[in-house]
Specification:
Leucine-rich repeat, LRR (right-handed beta-alpha superhelix), Leucine Rich Repeat domain protein, 538 residues, 14-stranded mixed β-sheet, 11% strand, 27% helix, alpha/beta, two-stranded antiparallel ribbon, LRR_dom_sf
Length: 538
C-alpha cells in the first residue's frame, strides 16, 4: 500500500517549509520537509517479510591452507608465555616474531613491575612545596620580598625572579607576591611598572598597594628639572596607573611626589576607586598639593567615601575646610592621623558616630582646644569602646595642649581599650602617678610629659614592698632630665616586660659611656636621628 504524499497529509504542519515530525524518520531530524517531499517518489508500506534476493547462510572454511588441520584462530593455552619463550634447537624463536607478552596476549597474572622511584624526586607539578595551599605558599614566598634595596638602585627580589622560572605553580604564586604590593623607590621603577601593566593588564588586577613612601628622586636625577624632563612620573602617568589598577586598596604618597598629585589624581583616589581603603599623604605640603585639593573641593562630593584609614601627617599647608569636607563622609573610619595639621575643633567633632577609631594621632595640632579633645575622647561613640592608640603629644616649648588640670580630667576618662598613650609635652604632677600606675596594668606603651622626676617613674614600678606588676613594654621619659645607671630599678630583671626606654640626648650620652655596665645587666644603647633608646637583650 502506497503512502500518501506529504502535502496531502492532514497531520503535517501548515507551514510550507516546516519540518515534518510524523514521517518515517526520527522527529526533528531535519531530513525531510514539505519541499523535499515533492521531489521523492512514493514509498511503500514497510514490509517485514523476507526479501527474495537475500543471501543464504553458508559455511565458509577457515582462512588457512586448504588441507591444514588448524582452525582459523586459536587462543594460546594458560601456560603459553610468548613465541620468544619457545626453544628451537637450543635457540630462541625468530626475532621477526613479536612477543605476545608485549601485546598483553600472554596469560600472565603477575603485576606490572613498579618503576624505581629515586628518593627526593616527584612528578612534574606534584612536589610538596607546589601542592601547598595558595595562602601558605604565598606566605612563604612573602618572606623573600625585599621592599627597598640597600642603596636604592641594585636589583631587587632576585630570588623571586628565580622562582618565576621554577614551575607553573611557583610562577603563579610568585606573580601574586610581586605585584600585590608595589614599592616605587624612584621614577624609573614606576615607568617600568606602568609599561608592564599596559602590556599585561591582567597583572594590574593583582595590585593592592602602591607605595611611594620610600620614593627618592635624587637616586636617578640630581635636580627636579631633570626629573621633569624624563616624564617618568607625572600627573598624567600617575592617573593612567590608577585607571589600570581598579582593585587598589592602599595608596601611600609623600612629599617628593606631592606636585604630581593633581586634581585628576585626587578625584580618582577619592571618588573613582571603590576598593580603596587606605590613603596616606604624609608630609605633602607644597602649594601645588594645596591648590589641587582646593580644586577638588569645588566639584560635587558623594555622601560617603570608602576610606577607612586616612593620614594627613604633617600636611601643614592644607586649610581646615579640607578636613571639614572629608571627615564627615568617613563613616567607617578606623585610623586617623592628622598630626601637625590645621584640624579644627569643628572638624574633629564632625567625625561620624558610626566610625570605629582604633588609632588616633592628634599630636602637634595647634588649632585644637583641650576641652574639645577631652570631650571627644571621653564621650564620642567613635572612640569610647574601640580606641587602642592615642597620641596627644606636643612640643612644650611652643605649644601646650594639656595643662595639669586637663591631665587630671583626662586620665580617669581614657577608654579601657587603650594600649598606647602619648602625653609627651603635657604638664604632669606627682599626683598623676596613681592614675599612671592604674593605666600601666593595661597599657603597653606610655610617653609621659614634663613635671615628673625619676623618683616618680621608679615609684610606678617599685614600691616598698617590691616590684609592681604591669604590662608596659615601651616607656618614653625623654621629657625628664635624668641619669640611668646599671643599678636603676627600670633595668632590673623584675621590671619585665619593659624592654625599651626612650631617653633624652644627654641621658643617652651618659649611658653610652657606661655601655659595658649596661651589657652586664642585659641592656644596650641605640640611636636613630634625634631619638635615643635603651633596649633590653632578648
Amino acid at each position: 500500500m502506497a503512502r500518501a504524499l506529504s502535502p496531502s497529509d492532514t497531520g503535517s504542519r501548515s507551514s510550507f517549509s516546516s519540518v515534518r515530525e510524523n514521517d518515517d524518520g526520527l522527529a526533528q531530524t531535519f531530513t525531510r520537509s514539505k519541499v523535499s517531499s515533492y521531489l521523492e517518489a512514493p514509498e511503500d508500506v514497510f514490509d517485514e517479510s523476507p526479501a527474495n534476493d537475500i543471501s543464504q547462510l553458508s559455511f565458509q572454511p577457515p582462512l588457512t591452507q586448504p588441507h591444514s588441520r588448524l582452525h582459523g584462530f586459536w587462543f594460546p593455552p594458560d601456560s603459553f608465555k610468548g613465541w620468544k619463550q619457545i626453544s628451537i634447537k637450543g635457540k630462541r624463536a625468530s626475532r621477526s616474531c613479536e612477543d605476545l607478552h608485549k601485546l598483553h596476549m600472554a596469560c600472565d597474572d603477575s603485576p606490572a613491575p613498579v618503576p624505581n622511584k629515586q628518593p627526593g624526586t616527584y612528578p612534574r607539578g606534584l612536589a610538596p612545596l607546589e601542592t601547598l595551599p595558595n595562602e601558605v605558599l604565598g606566605s612563604i614566598i612573602d618572606l623573600l620580598v625585599v621592599e627597598i634595596p640597600p642603596n636604592g638602585l641594585t636589583t631587587r627580589n632576585a630570588d623571586l625572579m628565580a622562582l618565576l622560572l621554577t614551575s607553573r605553580a611557583m610562577h603563579a604564586a610568585t606573580l601574586n607576591t610581586l605585584y600585590r604590593h608595589i614599592t616605587i623607590p624612584h621614577s624609573r621603577i614606576f615607568r617600568k611598572f606602568l609599561t608592564t601593566i599596559i602590556l599585561y593588564p591582567a597583572l594590574a588586577t593583582i595590585v593592592r598597594r602602591l607605595d611611594f613612601s620610600h620614593f627618592n628622586p635624587s637616586m636617578i636625577f640630581s635636580t627636579e628639572s631633570e626629573r621633569a624632563q624624563a616624564q617618568n612620573l607625572t600627573t598624567e602617568t600617575l592617573a593612567q596607573c590608577l585607571v589600570l589598577t581598579p582593585y587598589l586598596q592602599e595608596f601611600l604618597a609623600q612629599e617628593y611626589i606631592d606636585v604630581d598629585l593633581g586634581p585628576a589624581v585626587l578625584q580618582k583616589l577619592l571618588f573613582g576607586m571603590p576598593q580603596l581603603r587606605a590613603l596616606d599623604f604624609c608630609a605633602c605640603s607644597s602649594a601645588a598639593f594645596r591648590n589641587s585639593f582646593k580644586a577638588v573641593l569645588d566639584v560635587p562630593w558623594p555622601a560617603t567615601l570608602s576610606i577607612t584609614r586616612l593620614s594627613f601627617h604633617k600636611c601643614l599647608s592644607l586649610p581646615s575646610n579640607v578636613l571639614e569636607t572629608i571627615l564627615p563622609r568617613l563613616g567607617r573610619l578606623t585610623h586617623l592621623d592628622v598630626a601637625g595639621t590645621r584640624i579644627s575643633d569643628e572638624a574633629l567633632e564632625m567625625i561620624p558616630t558610626t566610625a570605629r577609631l582604633t588609632h588616633l594621632n592628634l599630636a602637634k595640632c595647634k588649632e585644637l582646644s583641650s576641652e574639645v579633645v577631652i570631650k571627644f575622647i571621653a564621650t564620642h561613640p567613635a572612640v569610647t569602646e574601640t580606641l587602642v592608640f592615642l597620641s596627644l603629644a606636643t612640643e612644650s616649648n611652643n605649644h601646650l595642649l594639656l595643662g595639669r588640670e586637663d591631665v587630671d580630667v583626662l586620665l580617669p576618662r581614657l577608654p579601657a581599650t587603650l594600649r598606647s598613650l602619648s602625653l609627651r609635652g603635657s604638664r604632669m604632677h606627682v599626683s598623676h602617678v596613681p592614675q599612671l600606675i592604674r593605666l600601666s596594668q593595661t597599657l603597653e606603651e606610655l610617653a609621659v610629659g614634663r613635671g615628673l622626676d625619676m623618683t616618680d617613674i621608679h615609684h610606678m614600678f617599685k614600691q616598698d614592698d617590691g616590684f609592681l606588676t604591669h604590662s608596659l613594654r615601651y616607656l618614653d621619659i625623654s621629657e625628664i632630665d635624668t641619669i640611668i645607671g646599671s643599678a636603676s630599678a627600670l633595668l632590673a630583671s623584675a621590671s619585665a616586660p619593659l624592654c625599651v626606654i626612650e631617653i633624652e640626648e644627654r641621658a643617652y650620652e651618659r649611658a653610652a659611656k657606661l655601655n659595658r655596665n649596661l651589657d652586664k645587666v642585659g641592656w644596650t644603647t641605640s640611636e636613630f636621628g634625634s631619638r635615643y633608646w635603651l633596649g633590653r637583650f632578648c
